[in-house]
Amino acid sequence: MSPRDASIVLTGAAGGLGSAIARQFFAEGARLLLIGRTAGPLLSLAQSLSAGAQDRNRVDALVVDVTTDHGRAAIIDAAAARNANVLINNAAVAAFGPAQDARSDDARCVMETNVVAPILLTAGMLPLLRSCPRAQILNIGSTLGSLGVPGFSVYGASKAALRIYTEALRRELADSTVQVQYYAPRAIETPFN
Which of the chain's ends, N or C, has fewer CB atoms near its CB within 10 Å? Predict the structure, then answer.
């Protein structure tokens, strides 16, 4: 699928990797629905992208929490209104440090954001995506989802779960019009790291 044919839902859009993804796809002609929890950076990104564009309708921003049922429902409604045919599950939180220091709130937050939210958002978006002539789901993982590294146990476990989910989903949708991919970058210089 060409970026010019893509109507993309991008979670975690205002972060370092998310904003780079948004800028690249926008430059290549895609339509974007930017999703994030924090209004300031998200709206600033949307405004900077659309500032010089002839078609300002190519970018929308939706400030919601992808870990909530209400947030996911709002994303699905907005995606349907924009005829979205691409879902990029990029939202993530980190929990770095020794395994013995893992706290229950942090571990739950990592798993809710990095695993449960993409699974449930994907499930909700699948009817829309399956109705498209061509559609794509891209789950942003990490090399740490394939390689256990000391100090990254909780985060690595979340990305390993997302990787296995993506593999299973790819096989489940193999005979459909929906292509499923997992992208596992190495260390990227962003505030996340």
Answer: C
